[in-house]
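Same chain as my last thread, 254 residues:
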Amino acid sequence: MSGILDRFFIFHPDPWQDQDWKGQSGLPLEDVWFPAADGTKLFGWYVEAPADRPVILWCHGNAGNLIHRLDNLGRFFRWALSVFVFDYRGYGRSQGRPSEEGLYLDAVGAYDYLTRTRMIRSERIILFGRSLGAAVAGDLAAQKPAAGLVLESSFPSIEAVARLHYGGLPLHWLLGAEFRLIDRLPQLSLPKLIIHGDQDDIIPLPLGRQVFDAAPPPKSMYVVPGARHNNTYLVGGIDYFTRFADFTQDAIRS
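reply #2:
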C-alpha cells in the first residue's frame, strides 16, 4: 500500500515532450544518458560554462521533469555556472519507477557520471537540491565528496511535512518514503547554504529553519523575502544569483 500512496502523495512526474528544447532555449544543452547506481537508464542535460568554474549537480523537486527547469537552468548558465540537471527514474525520459531508494541511486549515478565520465574533480562540484531534491542531495553529500551543498525549500522529513499539513495526524505512517534529511545533516562537514522563501506555504519557513539548525557549520541561511515554494530564484532575482554564485565560488576555493 505504501508504495502506491507514495506515487499519489510524493512523486508527481510528467512525461517527456519531444521538442527542440535546445533551439527554443538558446542554451548549449548536451543530452546525456547515464546509468543510476543500479543500472537504471536515466536522462539529463549538461550545460558547460568556462573551465574551472563550479559545476552544479542539481537534484530537482518532486514534480514535472527537466523541461520545467529550463528557465532556471538558463539563468544559472548566464551566471557562468556549469550545470548537470537530471531526471529521476520515472520522470521525463528516464526509465523505471520513482522510489526513495531509487532517487538516492539516481543521484549517485549522476555524480559518478560527472566524476568518472567527464572527469570533473569533486572539488569543483556543488550539490544542489530543491524541495524533495534537498533530501536527495543531502543523502548524496553523506556518501560522496563535494565542495559545497545548497539546500533550497528543504524540509527535515516527510513526517514533519505530513504532521504540519494534517494537523499533527501521523499520516506519514501510510507512506513508504521518509526522506529524513534531518538524519543526514549532522554528518555533513562541507560548506552549506540553506535558501528558503518566507512566504512558502508548501514547506513553511520554520521547517527550513529546522534544517539549518540541524546542520553543523560551516553554514549560512538566505531567506528570500516574498518568495513562495517554487519562485525563490525569480523573486530573489540578482540578489539570489549573487548569493548562489558567491557561495559556489567560495566553496571551491576553500
